[in-house]
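Re: beginner question about structure tokens

> Can someone show what the tokenized structure looks like for a real chain? I only ever see the sequence side.

Sure, here's an example I had lying around. Input first:
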Amino acid sequence: MVAAGANRAVAFRLSPGQAGDAPEGRKLLKSLEHCGWEGTSVIMDRAYEGDETRQLALELGMTPVVPPKRNRLTPWEYDRELYKKRNEIERLFRRLKGFRRIFSRFDKLDVVFTFFIHFALIVNTLFSVNRP
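And the corresponding structure tokens:
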């Protein structure tokens, strides 16, 4: 999921359970190529810290904000204060998982599950107007 803050999802993509996060994340970043997000910071967790994902963000004109894994031979610097805002996106995920149908994946069809994610995002937006 690509989110623009604690209450606004920009895009998301369903993937098989055995698929890795980074390839799907790169597909989502690529889908935002011509959407005017150049110059923005992309806050990612360590699952997306690979060279390929970081390079794609740079090619799209975005600034990757992701800590290197501890065993990296050549670690890089990143904005630690900005990285703390990743908590907002984690809170969005937590609120979405508050919908029992999402966290337990009752729906067998992807289209129905995708619809319910859209529905949950709308409800989250409506009821989070007064939340920070």
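Each token stands for a local structural state, so reading them left to right follows the chain. Residues 2-127 form a domain with the Nucleotidyltransferase; domain 5 fold (CATH 3.30.420).
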